[in-house]
Fold this sequence. Notes:
heterodimer, A: 298 residues, mainly alpha, two-stranded antiparallel ribbon, B: 311 residues, two-stranded antiparallel sheet, 2 strands
Amino acid sequence: LDQIPAVIVDGIFYAAWLFVAAVGMTLIYGVMKIVNITHGSFYALGAYAAASFTGAWFAHGYPPMLSYAVLLASAVIITLVFAPLIERGILRFMYAKDESVILLITYALFLILEDVIKLIWGVDPYFIAQPYGLLGSFDVAGLSYPTYNLILVGIAIVSGAGLTLLLRGTRIGKLLRTVIHDPETSRAMGINVGRFYLITFTFGSMLAAIGGAFTAPTVSVVPGLGVEVVVLAFAVVVIGGLGSLPGAALGAIIVGLVRSAAIHYAPQVELFVIYFVMALVLAFRPRGLFSLAEPRRI
Amino acid sequence: MNRDRTLPILGAILLALVVAGPLLPKWVLFLVTIALAKGLVALGLLLLLRAGLMSFGQALYYCIGAYAAGALGRLFNIGDMLLQMVVGALVAALVAFVLGFLLARYRGIFFGLLSLALSMILYGLLVKSEALGSTDGFNILRSTIFGIRPVENWVRYVVVIVGCVVAFFATALVYRYLNTPLGRLAPAIKDNEIRVEYMGTSVRNAIHVIYVIAGALAGIGGALAATTVGHIDPDMAYWTTSGEFIFITILAGTGSVIAPFLGALIFGIIQTVAYNVSPNTWQMTLGTALLLVIVFLPDGLWSLFRRRKVA
Lengths: 298, 311
């Protein structure tokens, strides 16, 4: 029982990571109706770019405190290179196809990107631990945590709140919601739907890359990094409801707390519980916890 | 259409393998056996796909079949190939029967995601169960047939032939099933469920039946793969394995019951050749092939044969 504070703190850190890794996926599904497997590739791309750029930054002896800006910048740059290429070059010709078929197409792209990463960065692991240790640590209930973990919590809050404000409060957000509701009519009313898709895909992928970039200092960056992220992000997004922002937040918190509780009390079910929750939600509320009731189609 | 000649063609392929088998190098026999195993799984996916359902978690039954074969060896010290495949099919079918009550209610992306979640549950369990070797898995008993251990040089050949015979009968059964009223229902379900219901048939039951058959086929495939490789691990249930099966099914197309085996063989060849030529780009080759097929041959490679027939 005395482990409860640790469970909660660990759960929050893990939830923040999950949210950053998954929110882009729910955004892309919400707008474009694409279940996007390349999301994991962008996570890995972000991690690799961060490892390269930040590694070079430290090798040149530039001010270490600015390395956090470099982490962010590398995620942004690498996404701006790859995401528009994929959306404009391939995906935009596929929107007419069935949801499951588009999923397969992103799976094919995922396979291709896995090897693109190997071609660019090789198969050896990269380590950039410096940003992780730089900030020291803080104590909660007698346990010490690296302050670095708070950065991801900050990113999660900023991205979640920012997206919500953007969608609810701005002209662009209004237009985007129109596109979500009815792309055909939006197009007829003169909204450039293609551009919204491009921006959404780039921005959603960028969030994955940022998640990868800020995780890079805490792990060794190796091939196959994105493979696990794909299913975890699926689980989070499905639990909350595909395409729902508050859903993704709720899903991340549930999965985060459940996993951290499992690690503390019953380590052998750590992975099992995540997907068990996912299956449970699908069984009782297939459209996720944050969905409105929808009339049965058949 | 070459529907009527499907079974003779299959028989001819079987016969050709029996005759040519001893002449082929061992790695080819290995490739063929694995292609058979994966083809069986893809055959199940084909049945589901005909009803408009895409399962992203068929690795669940593949893995169950493999671990059932492994359990036979561990618990009863049985390494008999045929028995392994039968038990693999039965256990997988049983699990599919139970889960089918849940899954038969789902369509589209939700069917796929739920089956994905279920396969990942099994993965999560296996990875953490030390009795079953966690992430390393365990070796399974050396293959025997009717209690006899084939001579070392002939093991691969015997496994291929046994696998082929089993696959032949399974495929023949599926072929027969497709020509029953229940089997012909699948494309109708895909086209318009409401009409099927109005005609007085239960769509849910039909899908449940298909799901169990697909599970059993994947179970056979898993057991065959297990006895061929001699080792099983939790990765057999991971989502990337399911991805492979879907890849094969889409590559082959749903035009014929032979197509999945052809697809699996081509998949194996691409994988082996691309891996040998350049180990860091074989996934890229696979991904590109998949993209090209989806864009230019939406009905899979099998549609190439059919088009030629029409012309």
